[in-house]
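Progress against Task 2.4 (sequence-to-structure conversion) is shown through the following example record, which the project officer requested during the mid-term review.
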Amino acid sequence: MKKLVAFILTLLMLASVFGACGKSVTTAGNTETTSDGNEKSTSETTTPEYEDIYVDDDDRSDVPVIVEHEMLPEEKIPSSFSLIGTTHLPPIDNQGSLGTCASQSITYTQLTNAVSRYLHSKDPDIKWDPSSGDEKTIFAPKFTYNFSGSGTAWVYNIIKDHGALTLDRCKFASNNGYKFGDQSYNREKQTISWPTNSGDMEKALNYRINDYEQIWLKTVSDKLTTSDEGKDLLYKIKDAIVQGNVVVTGGFSSSWRYLSQSDIKRSGLDADNDMVAVWCNGTNGGHQVSIVGYDDDFTCIFDGVKMKGAFKVANSWGNWGDNGYFWVMYDAVNRVSAHEELNDKKKYENRTVALDQFCFIYWEKDIVAEMPQAYVTLKLSAKNREGFYVELSRTDSTDTAKAYIPYLFTYGDNFEGIHSHSFFKDGESTVTFGGTVDAKKAETGYMTFGYNTLTESACSFEDFLWGLNLTVINGPVTIEKISLYDGDGKLRAEIVPPEESKTVSMGAVSFVFDAGSDPKSNHDVGSYKFKNSASGLYISPDADSALRISSDSNPLNATELEVQFDLVNRNHVIHLGGKQYILDIRDKTIADGVDVKFNAYNKRRNTQTWKVVRLEDGSYNIRLAADTRYALGMVDGKPVLVSGVGIRDYGNWILEKAGNENMSVTVRCNSNGKLMAEGRIPTADKEESITVTAYSSSGEKVNSWKVQGEGELRALSYELTGLTAGTYCFTFTDSKGKEVSASYIALVK
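Structure tokens generated for the chain above:
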């Protein structure tokens, strides 16, 4: 699978990676097990070789997300409690050969239980019964797994952004458990397909979470029952269960050690049903499960030692254990047993914690069972569902913008590890929405994204511009239709893009929906030669490397640089003229004297965007967006980072026109209700103009206007007349027919 390489900063994930008990998944240094206990080692993912591409590992730190929750008084916590047999807990599932344990425990069990309790609290008479096996009430592990992979935080983040779909609309192929495909490349299209039928992702948005809490046992010194902090955590787990919540946990399932038959008999337990984990002797086979009960009085005898207290745990291996359930003794979670006899290092070699983390969501406060304030549906046609990504933005009337990349695309690199050895033959590289590998024809899918993290309860839909940026790395991708909805499900705008711009093979296309705000969009963009004010030297190519840059006094030898404005993150990207390389720094350290050079797009680097700041004298500072204390300077003929007085002495630049320029234009209604094209043409060429073209919602050309800027700044303020009421898509092209700004969707009244 080709990696998605982008020019913007990707959100770093707080992720704990568990090997998922099914077929091997490529993660960094994990071992995974199947339900039959066979271990499989994972391998490291690799990066295409480009000069100076720096790919950092995801941040998988154990910093918990704190969720406020009113706990019960200790006296109201009973000695035992179980969620088994309640309406809200779904039947035990069987993940078969799939590595889906994180999605099984979180999506299938924990989320299903929480949503059911939340809905019943709102309507006690609701016909919603997961315990019956009704697939319309049970959330599908396929939805989160196929979008995220097997990381714990990855699954939760998918639910936060995209919600979850129920089993009746999103289900793996099943044959003695779920099948993914074997080494003979017996692919199951149903299993590997994405839920992109019309309405699927939209329905999923109705069931999301606000947040989750992840607590690692090492934060309490790996002492669950033998420290005050550990006892507090145990109390927290019990409280969550008593209040109706499933607690997700995990550990090393291949290293769990269970009571022997003789110890089961000696303990007076049911030899046919009771499966009791009493300690853990290593770190083989990462696996995730769900705590659904506890019993402080549960007693067993292990190697002559009487142990007391255990969790009741739901697994995802079908009828394994006690019809899918088993016990984990509290003491098994201690790295050092509370019983001295069980700490003999020779007899109990490599003892470690049986469960190493606990994840909480609370049905009464973390469930979001409604649509976001705004959401957008894209009807797309593509052969490669992983060859593009979407960015969402909203801009208010003060030109303050927020933006994010939905987590589905943040985890794009995970798909390579999941898919590459599981069902791809040598040379195969793409998969469609429907699960066809290396398809000869494009397939159509409907993808819906909510502006969840960008909305504010105090504001209305009309207070913002709603932005959408589609970046294609491995296309083509055709945009068949874009539909924008408010939180009530009302269609606010819908367009078919113009024929000439609806298909993108590589690069980005942007759309902005105007719902009534008044943004400003005068940004310095275009094609320039960069001349340092202090030295008089131009940025020019280096003799030894196309990606390193040097200096030259002759403008004929200067490098042509394309300054583009990213509507989503509100920063500039500076391209090497005619190339896909962009301005960056060497290595990762931001400091004075660090070389500035060109580099390939890398979404994990935060040093590839800049802020082009116009000064009063008409010159510019080129500030590093990641740390605006630093800017591009020219010191001793060498382009480097400078700061402080160094910016004053070495960091002022003159941007001289070079070839075609991009422009910055928007369409909006002014205070008098007139539809205006506003912006500027950042060029000294007074003959340069732009053409504003209006297309109907069905993509048909309606009208066009040729506009020239006025004054020194080549400012635009032009009334667009002759349009009847309706929804229009406006495009902006220069005198050579090149699109120079995001398409603007406006409702003309």
